[in-house]
């Protein structure tokens, strides 16, 4: 069964609410195993058929956990070419992190980016959660 790896970081829970909505959306497509986790290893990235990363913006950047994962995956020369990838995250005023992550997934790992990036200002409202569900569904459909 194909696997969707959904990794997210959160400090105050906002990106976690989004991650659960993305998972809900992805689950509407049958025949896909979804791994939802706070952390992942480069090997899990390698073994996944699609990757979605949820990351809040702190100090204008992605979190250190996600940065470290991408650096380790690059060092291990993990091949992710053409796998569907997407990103989302909560932010307060600038919201760079999900776009930074996608830039790396696209340019370094040559992944197939599924848009749009979903951003939620602080706690996601119903519209943001709906957009998250849509994103999850879209990535799942891109795998199947
Ligand atoms: C110390 C600190 C630094 C932050 N830096 C930024 C920032 O540079 N840009 C931004 O858009 N939001 C920034 N934020 C706001 C967070 O992104 C926002 O609170 C978000 O909802 C956190 O998501 P989380 O609950 O998933 O951790 C910052 C918040 C804190 C506490």
Measured by DSSP, the beta-strand proportion falls in 15-25%
Radius of gyration: 14 Å
Number of helices: 5
CATH class: Alpha Beta
| Distinct small molecules | flavin mononucleotide
CATH topology: Rossmann fold
What is the CATH superfamily? Flavodoxin domain
Structural class: alpha/beta
What's the shape? globular
The first-to-last residue Cα distance is: 10 Å
User: What pattern of helices and strands is seen along the backbone?
Assistant: EHEHEHEHEEH
Mean pLDDT: 97
Spans of at least 5 consecutive residues with low confidence: none
Biggest sheet character: 6 strands, parallel
Please provide the count of β strands: 6
CATH A-level architecture: 3-Layer(aba) Sandwich
Give the structure's gist in a few sentences:
With 144 residues, the chain is an alpha/beta fold.
Descriptive tags:
144 residues; alpha/beta; Rossmann fold; 6-stranded parallel beta sheet; 5 helices; 6 strands; binds flavin mononucleotide
Structure, explained:
- Strands 1, 2, 3, 4, 5 and 6 form a six-stranded parallel sheet that branches.
- α1 links the parallel β1 and β2.
- The chain has 144 residues and is an alpha/beta fold.
- The N and C termini lie close together (10 Å).
- The protein is 42% helix and 21% strand.
- The protein is built from five helices and six strands; from the N terminus they run βαβαβαβαββα.
- The longest helix has 18 residues.
- It has one domain: Flavodoxin domain (Rossmann fold), CATH 3.40.50.360.
- The radius of gyration is 14 Å and the shape is globular.
- The site of flavin mononucleotide has 18 residues, from α1 and β4.
